[in-house]
Amino acid sequence: MVRPGPVPAWVEPMLAKPDGGRLRSGPPWAYEYKLDGFRAAMRVAPDGTTVLTSRNGIDFTNEFRTVTGVLTEALDGRAAVLDGEIVVYNEAGQIDFELLQARRGRYQKHRGAIEDVPVRYLAFDLLRLGDRMLLGEPYDERRRLLTSLPMPDPYLVAVVRAFTFDELAADRTTPEQLLGRVAVDGLEGLVAKRRDSLYTPGKRTDAWLKHPLVQTREVIVCGWKPGQRSFTGTLGGMLLGAHDPATGELVYIGDVGTGFSERDRADLQARLEKLERRTHPFATTPPREDVVRARWVEPVLVGEVRFRQFTRGAGRLRGTSWRGLRPDKSPAEVIAPQAGEPRPEPAEPTRITVRVGERRLVLSDLDKVLYPDGFTKGEVINYYSRVAPVLLPHLRGRPVTVPGEAPGWLRTVRRSGVEYALIDDLPALVWAVNQGTVELHLPQWTIDDDLLVLGLEPGPGASIVDCCRAAERLYDVLTGDGLVPVVKTSGSQGLHIWARTPGETYAKAYHDDKVLIEWNADPTIAPYSLCGGHEPMVSTPLTWDEVRDCRDAAELVFTADEVLDRVAEYGDLFSEVRYSPAPPARDAGSGSSPADR
User: Fold this and answer.
1) pLDDT tens digit sequence for 137-165
2) Is 34 a catalytic residue?
3) Model's pTM, two decimal places?
4) Domain 216-333 maps to which CATH number in 3.40.50.620, 2.40.50.140, 3.30.310.50, 1.20.1510.10?
5) What are phi and psi for residue 14, nearest 5 degrees?
6) Is the distance from CB of 177 to CB of 185 less than 8 angstroms?
7) How many CA atoms lie within 13 A of 39 on its CB side?
8) Active-site annotation holder among 17, 34, 488, 514
9) Looking at 258-272, 463-477, 575-589, which range is the least confident one?
10) Residues 296, 278: contact at Cβ < 8 Å?
């Protein structure tokens, strides 16, 4: 018989500190994946009654009811308090914070069960078991007790795997190699935890240190700007604040204008309009040029952004992209970045061995900055790993120019004395990026004879807006001939139009005073490929409505983060392209080394 008893009291969560760019190493440390969801305590009464509580005390129980009650049988009449994260997975099997945000938006609107987006609770700590409080026990003991609990339904509730330094060493691997797996798997990073550390509620200590691969930051929404041109009538961007770590004052730290879906813009605008105030909430007035057309709000909403750099002098986040609201965090705990962030470059180059699919690859210098805005090689690998489900169908069987000697397992083709790689799967893609391939170019002879590729580039004094006007006319011509054209950005200033043809001949080149239209330009950058520049811009598939509505060049500039959001929302906008069978390939060599080079 289960004895009655109340739901255990909430315990304020222990917090992790940034590690300053140095992943801790040695026998005192254990490592967990840095999760990308909502932090929550799971409090279970002896009779199985379960309450989910966010890190700032919000009741999540009704919103995520499917994970409650799962541990009743396993606890066998004992009370428990677990610390963990509520997450959602995308179709590629990756934890997806944007999907979790979209789910939350639907729940708040309808206040009903959201059954088509399942959630999972991933526990990483145990704070109470039965009548025994475990806060004063070392991490190792708490983990031992947590992992001893049966998990009746691991699809709903599971324990996050932890790796001790000694366990990694026994497997002939290192914390840096574990970080390489994180990059390939599309995860956020690692959290290093001292194995002898106690659980200190509400404290942020050196016992838990987070090493993010993708930099994110909590921010306070302090104002917004109405959108212009194609975003007229909706939210265009938001003005951000945080508390100065020395004085506690609310300070301006920049803005964010990208990363929003159409639903995000509408929902955020509706919420912000209800919070309007007449004056800005900052201790010091922000620069005039930053706040033109600003509409101020009470600083009560916390959100999260990705960012590339924090400028020391001005104290601004740069290269921001919106991730979503954080109802599990309060404005009081949002602290402004400090001088010295983001993480520094490593003192020496690093080489790590990781498993990608069936291959072992040696990756090097994941922290090397490849874009002036701070985007690193590890982030490039992370982006390509996450976008691979929609990218690889456009590369499969199509030779790609890649520097360096190909490993023995990689299929290649030879033309005119040049060896080309076939990027058919994720291991090949990660290998190519590690070799230094950031842009994925398809030589024109690899494009099918009946696949028309038109490149539109702006002339002097013109922009992609002029390319859009030309593209509209080409759309009418191509559809009038019965073709189905698709369109993408070139990644810089122009557009590319692809269409399957029945064999008609089209003019090879045309230009006027504004736009050059080139037929089957060589080489052609692949859909979803990164491009050069100050930021990690992407050759991005578009809708034809986006082309027609474009009135400002900035509207069709997309970073890697934004493209991942677009793929989650729209899928593959280039899926209409159908390819002929791939050209014959041959193995690059016989055999391969254990690390497959």
Assistant:
1) 999 999 999 999 999 999 999 999 999 99
2) yes
3) 0.62
4) 2.40.50.140
5) -75, 145
6) no
7) 16
8) 34
9) 575-589
10) yes
